[in-house]
Specification:
The complex is a heterotrimer of chains A (about 750), B (about 80) and C (about 160). Chain A is of the alpha+beta class. Chain A has 21 helices and 26 strands. Chain B has one domain: Ubiquitin-like (UB roll) (Roll). Helices cover about 20% and strands about 25% of the residues of chain B. The chains are: A alpha+beta (about 750), B alpha+beta (about 80), C alpha+beta (about 160).
Chain lengths: ~750, ~80, ~160
């Protein structure tokens, strides 16, 4: 595919929401208030697993200032099982399933009174045995959270908590292992981590007795919020208007609901708007961390570095309700390699922990950590260069992927070659320092989008779309609109509309927005261009198909070429009221052909032998993004994802006590990377255009969290001469490995 | 006939076959015929599957055309973050 | 116990409010004074999203009681820009694409401004350690550090 000349794509304009964000004007979830508003608080279970024998709310209801109290009994059943689980996660029915599970909620005239009311709610719990570890939960005899949801194909060798089994692959791994010169088999464990968005969940809900409601909330998908809340509250989706606030981080953690139906129900009961904000403690205990994992990996390699077979067994725990996510790990585990013999198996398991939700490339980081660690160990054992070995086995266009489809144009080889040629790879290593390499991958998706584009009489463009902006997409969408229309970037204003203003849009996830909303934007622009050409044709009294669009203007073609000077968008817009009415273009669709995105990360880590502290000395992240619409925001995604991965590798973990309670629900002890932990993160953008997008865009937001876990772990292994098989590799654990 | 690739954990419903041949002109047509032939796949298809046609992934679209000699890979409906 | 009456100065303006004894400055700023630029990320002084300056000293407003600011001067992000112009820190954050979701940005701006008020030529290491109390989950800090260093250079009169 030729690389065309773009006027705007590839430049770095200032993001349109930037001024409000640096001046404190931008409105996030908790920033909105309204007249007559009540404040809500949620009572949460202190037990990991308990039957709720009874709840007595009379004293709470009697407290002056309390306007409504609800429990699970206030929510009627829903038809869809998946929605029922979501609902029961928002408010327990029958059983408390994890420490932090919502049991009741209060709306009162102040936060203080609401908090006092919580203390007056009397709950009688019958404590049940609990389980928080994935392997323990899978073992026969483990306490089972829900009966009757075990995956059908599984037998008595696993407990009733095992809700899913997946297997992918092709060939005959056994024969591949026999043909290998070296086979390594290892077991890995990773802890549950949290997306760590700095903004807690927050909403302002107003629901009338007539079933009409308004909801303001921080979310990655306000249409999904509308659908789920309408289902749970038994109201029509069209009667609930949801507005997405600015979002203070999501990373997948805000692609579901936790507090919204509770706020809406309280509002309906009290007859007043209700504001409900999660505390940080609640975010850790009761929103959606990602899975912890226990994994067995077996890989065989010839002495020249060819991988002869791979087999992954992944056991993930996803919290207290049935779910499906291990298949994403199983599909991505070996995705970087072209293999004749490969199998990945995965089991989804329930435990008494909060219900998992997506976290950036969900399921992939742990699986790839394990596979890339074994590949690295094989390279060490056989004395092979880690990048050359990966190049030898790298998936390319035409390779049959380990999860089934044959790859189209992909950029893994380009990323590996860029890494190999980069000065980082050949820089000398300081004492106590090791260099780690890892590949990474993510699928990226298309999904449903709606764009409505109005050409204003002053020649500017108002674009409404339905996808909350979590990475700078409003800037990129405006850039694509401006590029397609041939006008200046600052003539376009893109806003995220509420659910009543523009058509349905799937959640902002799957690294899909620049790709999918981009396609809809280009199509909407083309529709507007067609109409503008028609108007010019009318004014010139020539045929509409004798007019073309170039450089932001209509001009006559064919035998009329040059007969009239071009008519710019602004000129056509100025007379639109007289030539047929307002001019707009819109497009609704569900584009497919999203391109996968591969990454390669290099990291130098220095271990302090006295403290076990791992310093990241140098980090270079290579990633194929197809086409970087706004390079600075693409760099930002790569850097942000890499640092989340570094945190996952070195410090972040959910720590549970014997009592099944979360011991570190705060930022002090759930330690995410801080500025002083890190060097500059050097992103290298590779562009192998995705043939499925007019500008070559691939998703880029998720891939970058996938390589760091193994890259850091491989670096540590080479620095200390000892390989570790559990994450995080926090200082006490490294000291133990050193001793 | 399209060559339909079935991933490992679904093969229990296709008599162990990793590949089956189905004559179909659209994705919806193919899925209906697949379930007709292997009723054990009904739950999975109802829950949702994506199809990769000659390497291009289609999330859930019904009317994507399928050529005579296409490779169609059945995949779980995927999720992102 | 009845509410406490507090007279103070916020962003240069004289302000009076009533607050509960246990109410934090963070809650007062957001809920009573409608200054929602300051954010609650954790409520326990670990994330820095609620950073303000109190008589020029950088503090987490979630760790200060509303009643404590009697007779003091508080500056929030809303007071950083002047009527005419953005502060160089704000401008450089925008130009260097050093914010994504923007929730940590107000805290970073207040903290960076406090740093440059006492050290006009910080090294990268000094900036990183000063900002270690401001958590950011989106950017990996790289562009933020670059923006603060280049804003500092501009404020020293160096060409950027």
């Amino acid at each position: 595919m030729n690389k065309p000349d773009f006027k705007i794509l590839g430049t770095r304009p200032i993001r349109p929401d930037g001024l409000d964000k640096v001046t404190g004007k931008a409105m996030f979830g908790a920033d909105k208030s309204t007249t007559g508003m009540l404040h809500a608080r949620i009572l949460r279970s202190p037990h990991a697993h308990a039957e709720i024998v009874s709840i007595d709310t009379t004293k709470a209801e009697a407290l002056t200032g309390v306007k409504a109290v609800i429990t699970g009994a206030d929510f009627d059943d829903v038809e869809s099982r998946a929605t029922r689980y979501t609902m029961q996660n928002c408010m327990a029915q029958g059983k408390a399933l994890y420490d932090g599970h919502a049991i009741a909620a209060v709306a009162a005239t102040s936060k203080k009174i609401a908090g006092e009311a919580l203390k007056l709610i009397e709950v009688d719990y019958k404590i049940l045995p609990h389980v928080t570890d994935v392997d323990a939960a899978m073992a026969p005899g483990a306490p089972v959270l829900h009966e009757g949801v075990k995956a059908r194909k599984l037998g008595d060798e696993v407990s009733g908590n095992t809700v899913g089994y997946y297997s992918f692959g092709h060939g005959d791994p056994e024969s591949g292992f026999e043909a290998a010169d070296q086979v390594i088999e290892r077991t890995f464990k990773t802890a549950a981590t949290h997306q760590g968005y700095i903004e807690p969940h927050a909403c302002l809900a107003s629901l009338g007795a007539d079933g009409r409601g308004e909801l303001w909330c921080t979310t990655q998908g306000h249409y999904l919020v509308r659908e789920l809340c309408a289902e749970i509250l038994h109201i029509d989706a069209s009667q609930l208007r949801v507005t997405a606030s600015e979002i203070g981080g999501g990373f997948g953690g805000k692609t579901t609901i936790f507090i919204e139906p509770v706020a809406l129900k309280l509002s309906q009961k009290a007859g007043k708007p209700v504001k409900l904000v999660m505390s940080r403690d609640e975010v850790f205990r009761a929103s959606g961390p990602t899975m912890s994992a226990s994994m067995d990996i077996k890989i065989g390699m010839s002495k020249s570095g060819k991988i002869t077979a791979g087999h992954a067994k992944l056991r993930y725990q996803g919290g207290a309700f049935p779910y499906q996510m291990v298949m994403m790990g199983a599909m991505s585990a070996f995705a970087a390699y072209e293999l004749e013999h490969v199998q990945s198996e995965g089991w989804d398991v329930m435990t008494n922990r909060p219900k998992m939700i997506s976290y950036r490339a969900p399921g992939a980081p742990m699986a790839v950590y394990a596979v890339e660690s074994v590949v690295d160990e094989l390279c060490q054992k056989l004395g092979l260069d880690p990048i050359d070995t990966r190049l030898m086995n790298a998936a390319k266009e035409g390779s049959k992927s380990s999860y089934g489809p044959t790859f189209k144009a992909i950029g893994l080889v380009e990323a590996l070659e860029a890494a190999k040629a980069h000065p980082h790879y050949s820089a000398p290593l300081a004492p106590n320092t090791g260099r780690g390499v890892s590949c990474g991958f993510w699928f990226n998706f298309g999904g449903q989008v709606s764009v409505s584009m109005a050409i204003n009489a002053d020649g500017t463009v108002s674009l409404i779309e339905g996808n909350p902006d979590i990475g700078g997409s409003r800037a990129s969408i405006s850039m694509m609109a401006a590029e397609a229309l041939g006008i200046e970037f600052d003539r376009v204003r893109t806003i995220v509309g509420d659910t009543a203003s523009v058509g349905f849009s799937d959640v902002t996830d799957g690294s899909r927005v620049t790709f999918a909303v981009g396609i809809a934007t280009i199509n909407a622009a083309n529709a507007a261009i067609k109409e503008m050409c028609k108007r010019a044709a009318k004014i010139w009294e020539i045929d509409a198909d004798a007019v073309e669009w170039a450089n932001g203007a209509a001009q006559p073609t064919g035998h009329n070429a040059g007969a009239f000077p071009p008519m710019s968008l602004a000129e056509i817009a100025a007379t639109s009221g007289k030539t047929g009415g307002p001019i707009a273009g819109h497009h609704e669709g569900a584009p497919d052909k999203a391109g996968v995105s591969f990454g390669v990360h290099l990291v130098d880590v220095e271990i302090d032998p006295e403290t076990g502290f791992t310093a990241i000395k140098r980090y270079t992240a290579f990633q194929d993004v197809g086409k970087a619409i706004h390079p600075a925001y693409v760099e930002g995604q790569i850097q942000g994802g890499a640092v989340q991965g570094i945190g996952w590798a070195l410090n972040e973990e959910y720590i549970y006590g014997e009592d099944g309670r979360l011991q570190n629900p705060g930022f002090l002890d759930y330690r995410i990377p801080v500025a002083s932990d890190l060097p500059m993160i050097n992103p290298v953008i590779i562009e192998v255009p995705n043939p499925g997008h007019p500008y070559g865009v691939r998703g880029c937001g998720e891939t970058a969290i996938v390589p760091p876990l193994a890259a850091v772990s491989n670096g540590v292994a080479r620095a200390i001469g000892e390989r570790m098989f559990e994450l995080p590799m926090s200082p006490p654990k490294i000291l133990k490995a050193l001793s | 006939m399209a060559r339909v690739v079935i991933f490992g954990s679904l093969r229990v419903h296709t008599e162990g076959l990793a590949e089956v041949e189905i004559a179909a002109t659209t994705t919806r047509d193919l899925l209906q015929k697949l379930v007709d032939r292997f009723p054990g796949l009904d739950n999975t298809v109802k829950a949702g599957v994506s199809l990769a046609i000659d390497g291009e992934v289609y999330k859930e679209a019904w009317f994507t055309p399928i050529a005579d000699d296409s490779e169609v890979v059945v995949m779980p409906l995927m999720v992102g973050g | 116990m009845s509410k406490i009456h507090v007279s103070t100065q916020v962003n240069g303006d004289a302000v009076e409010f009533l607050c509960d004894p246990e109410e934090t400055l963070l809650d007062v700023l957001r809920d009573r004074l409608n200054l929602t630029g300051v954010k609650e990320g954790c409520g326990t002084g670990d994330c820095g999203a609620c950073s303000v300056t109190l008589d020029g000293r950088l503090v987490c407003s979630c760790l200060v009681l509303g009643a404590e600011v009697e007779g003091s001067a508080v500056e929030t992000v809303e007071g950083v820009a002047t009527e005419d112009a953005l502060h160089p820190i704000q401008r450089h954050l925008l130009e260097k694409a050093a914010l994504q979701c923007g929730i940590c940005t107000p805290g970073i701006i207040v903290a960076a401004k406090a740093l440059l008020a006492q050290n006009s030529a910080p090294t990268e290491k000094e900036v990183r350690y000063w900002l270690a109390g401001n958590l950011c989950r989106c950017t990996g800090y790289d562009k933020i550090i670059r923006a603060v260093l280049s804003a500092a250079a501009e404020m020293r009169g160096e060409s950027v």
